[in-house]
Amino acid sequence: MEVLRNSPEASAFVPLAEHQSRTPSSFYEGPPVLHYHSERCKIVILERDLVASPALSALRGESAAAASEQDDEKEVAIEGVETWVTSDKLLLFSPTASTGVSIPYPSISLHALQRLRVPGTESPEVQGLYMQVATPSAPSADDEEESITMTIVLPADAPTQETSDGSGETETPTQIFYNSVSACSNLHPDPVEPGDEDEDDEEGAKWFSAEDADGVVRLGDGGLPPPVAGSSGWITAENMGEFFDGEGNWIAGGEPPSFPLGPGAGTVRAREGENGFGGDEDGGEDDEAKWRRTE
User: What's the rounded mean pLDDT across residues 271-291?
Assistant: First the structure.
């Protein structure tokens, strides 16, 4: 999380509706897109998680922090927080405390809809957006990534909107909020960490000779791989004679392949009627053979 000292301004973002109405001149430059914005939100969070994140704790102001009972398992509600869901980051800002936080989307390991009761109120359960946010600055002893959890509750008068499927049904404000966070999270996939690559993919990026790969040639990048040691390309019906003689013996340069080629591999067969195949000694055909074929 990064601390914000200045309140976000709407002019610094492109509204989502405007962004969708035209083709941008560049997909890599320009201001971030504002997917959702709401004022007067509440953040419901455990006291211990506030202690673990000074940036979030600053949102409640010094007076509220001093009045806290410091009960680790106690839930507190930080009121009056502005929420900005932008294509760049999720922004939370408290005008009262004149501070805020910027949360990168890859840090949000989980977000979901939740029903809860806001601490300090007598109101019934409301809907909120539950989030689990990683805090890499506080690693645990067992090397597992530490995280904090919080729920953002929108104001009761937040607007709804009709669904885009034409059914006429409406989405709750929190559902709209959830969809916005999901859309922006998809723009920021988790980075690939060293060692996460699939070993098979790494092997597939290289060529192997058939001998090195026990007869299995893997796909990769570049030109065609040598199918066997000593050859420079694939063995086909057209170039079979360059690698095997009529008896199936290896005649190409280098060592013959060490893997089994299967029955009949390497055998050169002449067409019927040539070199004594399918005919008499003079290369002709007897009448009986002809009669059988024409019947």
Answer: 50
